[in-house]
Structures are given as structure tokens and as C-alpha cells.
Amino acid sequence: MEVQHGKGLSPWGTGRTRPPSRARRRRALLWFVRYGIPVAVFIVGLVILVVEKDRGTALEAGFMFFGVAIAVLLLNLFFRIGMRGEGERDREESARRYFDRHGRWPDE
User: Does the pTM exceed 0.70?
Assistant: First the structure.
């Protein structure tokens, strides 16, 4: 029986796991900020609704947390829409510079 060697092939590997790459950590952090925080705030609102004995206070505080969660989601959405527009403006500006140098649009 031949033992294959190489990354991930040997059953007698080093047992070490690679730390997450910088891009993967950044993606995970962005996901947490975009979705994790609003979900956590929403869950806190649910907990307050269930745990608080005074129904009036529970409703006010719980729905306040729901509103905060929705506000954070919308803030993230609007920021992403704004950043997408920034990229479009940059592409338009580079196309205009190309037009100024060559006298025609880049896609012609």
C-alpha cells in the first residue's frame, strides 16, 4: 500500500490547523457587523418581552430593541448602496479621463 504524501493527504498529518486568512477574518467580521449585531439586539428584545414582569415596560423595551435592530440593518444596507455608487462614480471618472486622452469612449 502506498502512502500518499502532500497537503491533506497523509493520515499522519501534523495535526495543526491553519489560522484563518486575513480575507476570511475580514469577511467574518463584516458579516458579524452587518447581520450578527442586529440579530443579537433582536434576541435581546425577545428576551426582554419574555422575562420582564411588567407588560407595559416589556412591550416598550422589547419593541425599542426591535426598532434598533431594524435601524442597524437599514444603516448597513444604505451604506452598502452608497459604496456601490462610489465605485460607479470611479469607473465613470476613469472613462472620462480615457475619453480626454484618446477622443473616444473606452467601450467603443
Answer: no
Burial class of residue 103, CB neighbours in 10 A (0-12, 13-18, 19+):
exposed
Q: Check pLDDT > 80 for residue 19.
A: no
Rounded to the nearest angstrom, the gap between the alpha carbon of residue 40 and the centroid of all alpha carbons in its chain is 15
Does residue 90 carry a pLDDT above 90? no
Give helix then strand counts, H and E, for the chain. 3, 0
Phi first, then psi: what are they for 66, rounded to 5°?
-60, -45
Distances (CA, A) of 9 to 2, 15, 19, 72: 12, 12, 19, 45
Residue indicated by cell numbers 407595559? 56
**Lowest-pLDDT choice from 6-15, 55-64, 83-92:** 6-15
From CA 96, how far away is CA 102, in angstroms rounded? 10
